[in-house]
């Protein structure tokens, strides 16, 4: 499974480094997309907790087609 996490604004290099398993791209709408493989629900929770620990609100999360 692959998931995409959309966050508002740009993210720093420090934040990008905190998610080495995800690809980071800037959205044309001004946000940032972080996406990549996610094995299971526990992994989703781990990623969401990491966003929360860094103070980055996730605007949207969605499963991507394989």
Radius of gyration based on Cα positions: 11 Å
Mean pLDDT: 94
Structure annotation, total helices: 2
Largest beta-sheet characterization:
4 strands, antiparallel
- Helix and strand pattern: EHEEHE
| Strand arrangement across the biggest beta sheet | 2-3-1-4
Runs in which pLDDT lies below 50 for 5 or more consecutive residues are none
Percentage of residues in strands: 25-35%
Shape: globular
Kindly name the structural category: alpha+beta
In total, the number of strands is 4
Give the distance, in angstroms, between the N- and C-terminal Cα atoms.
6 Å
Helix content: 25-40%
Task: Explain what you see.
With 66 residues, this protein is α+β, with helices and mostly antiparallel strands. The chain has two helices and four strands. The chain has helices spanning 13-18, 41-53; strands at 2-7, 23-26, 32-37, 58-64. It has a four-stranded antiparallel β-sheet with strand order 2-3-1-4, with helices on one face. Strand 2 (23-26) and strand 3 (32-37) form a beta hairpin. The termini are close together. The mean pLDDT is 94.
List keywords for this structure.
about 70 residues, alpha+beta, 2 helices, about 30% helix
Gist?
The protein is α+β, with helices and mostly antiparallel strands.
Topology:
Layout (H helix, E strand, L loop, with lengths): L1 E6 L5 H6 L4 E4 L5 E6 L3 H13 L4 E7 L2
Antiparallel strand pairs: 1-3, 1-4, 2-3
